[in-house]
Amino acid sequence: MGTSNETIWTVAYSPDGRFVASGGNDHILRVWDTRLHDLAFELECAIPSIWTAAWAPDGKQIAAGSADGKVCIFDVKKREPSVEFKVGQSDKVYTISWSPNGDVLATGCFNDAVWLWIPKTGKAKKSPFRGHKSHVYCIAWSPDGTRLISGALDHTVRVWDTDKGQTLFKGPLLGHKNSIQGLAYSSDGKQFASGDVEESPRVQIWDAETGKPLLPPVSEELKRTFQEAEAEAYPNPESDPGTPSKMNAAAAITAVAWLPSGKHFVSSSVDGLTRIWGAQKGYHTRETAGQKESVNALAVSADNTKLATASDDHIIRIFDPISLEQLTDFRTDHTDSMLAVHLTPDASRLVTASKDKTVRFWDVGSGKLQHVIKAHTDSVRTLAVAPDGKKLASGADDNTILIWDMQTYDQIAGPFRHDGCVRALCFSPDGARLLSGSDDCTARIWDVFTDKDAFDIIRVHAGAVGAVDWSSDGKTLLTAGADDWTVWVWNATTGEPIHGPLEGDGIKGIQAAAFSPDSQYILAGSSSGTLCIWETNTGKVVLDRQEKVNVRYC
């Protein structure tokens, strides 16, 4: 039909079959007329090479992905780019596909992730879907748009719930011994096919409802090969990153908090260490010693006089937050691991939450127990104290949030309910609203005084929301993904995203995140042991630290 002197990487038919788009190394998308057997027109975009292209269902747009991680959406009528955006840091776009209704664009990328985008704006619709162990080469939508399948260099196929971003069928589908290069759904959505690039290429047909292989039958020898590969890639089924879990026990960093000056921050980790870091250069200046049990939570008093940590050994330790000199400690009577700790604004009292389903109040000076709340029916995972010190919120694995009077210990609001365990809580600066994050992939804002259902629900994370925070001026929110490894920044009034998804080099499984005291920066700590700081106004990384324990001292 025509020729090009450059390598051609992709071809795509228009919905009506009249045209074919082709792309290669010369950054030009050529559109050919199949009736005239000639070039119809050319589309140019500022991308080095076009690796993948797809027509929108209505035929009015063509999306192209490139080797430098850029996506360009062309207006076919105007014959010019309408939207351009970059997928991620140091990423490459291998495959691209429109949803059946044309409202969403999906990309499969070099950095092992699947992304969903809003074509009109070029903004991410959700955080990336993570789970593959290597490059994602192909994707395909179900006819109803509720599911997306992806195939990768890791020899696996994954089926995603496009609303929640979760892998269905409890993990990857194993039916190939080599890289997956092709995927397709049947027109009725009841089956899908996957193809690989073995020496004897294999095509596998799957039942779309069960995830079971249909044709050809999988031999016992091949089953053993797949099982061995699965055991090597996923030694612990609970560790599959495409399936959110309640608690990542291998997490390095369990909690972070800024010191009131904003010049330093503190982190705790499963190695039993609590560290003070300089926010400007990221070097840790002090660390605790002599403790082996995991430090699961920490809290800094508003007056910067006390730092409290809660550990697996059931001991509360109080430190000077500047010198990290231990001031006191006391053993609690919790019967299981403590998961959260919070100091009142005046630092006179301390609240702890535990796997033993209780919330306990303590006098900091004497270490004496003041009160025990036994209202939750499962592990209490998170706490938040209102800025005025009068209200306490507790969130648990029983999917509920309860609000308590700090003086009388009476329940004054709730239960507020999620569809998964509650991982994170934060009061607004005026104490009237509560922000929560959950394993149900949502963050929700609750009106504390009306005791009504959430009036704003954030559905963007592809997995559990591991951390939330409210800016000091009340205008901005942050949510962080424990499973999708991203941070989003939100307008607290409109609920619209300001920045996101924010990613950091080496950030995996964000367990803790917080605004700086002046709200100019965002700090996050992850299960990979990496700390990262972003600038709130721009979303740019200003500091990341991957050296874990092996870093220089100031």
Fold and architecture overview:
The structure is a single chain. With 554 residues, the chain is mainly beta. Among the domains are: 8-239, Methylamine Dehydrogenase, Chain H, CATH 2.130.10.10; 252-374, Methylamine Dehydrogenase, Chain H. It has 1 helix and 50 strands. The strands form 12 sheets. Strands 9, 10, 11, 12 and 13 form a 5-stranded antiparallel β-sheet that branches. Strands 14, 15, 16, 17 and 18 form a 5-stranded antiparallel β-sheet that branches. It has a 4-stranded antiparallel β-sheet with strand order 1-2-3-4, with no helix packed on it. It holds the Pfam family WD40. One of its GO terms (cellular component) is transferase complex. WD repeats lie at residues 1-35, 86-127, 129-170, 253-287, 288-320, 331-372, 373-414, 415-448, 458-500, 510-544. Keywords: Repeat, WD repeat.
Helix content: under 10%
Low-confidence stretches: 230-251, 546-554
The overall pLDDT, averaged over residues, is 85
Which class best fits the helix and strand makeup? mainly beta
* Number of discrete helical segments: 1
Pfam family, one: WD40
Organism: Coniophora puteana (strain RWD-64-598)
Protein name: WD40 repeat-like protein
WD repeats: 1-35, 86-127, 129-170, 253-287, 288-320, 331-372, 373-414, 415-448, 458-500, 510-544
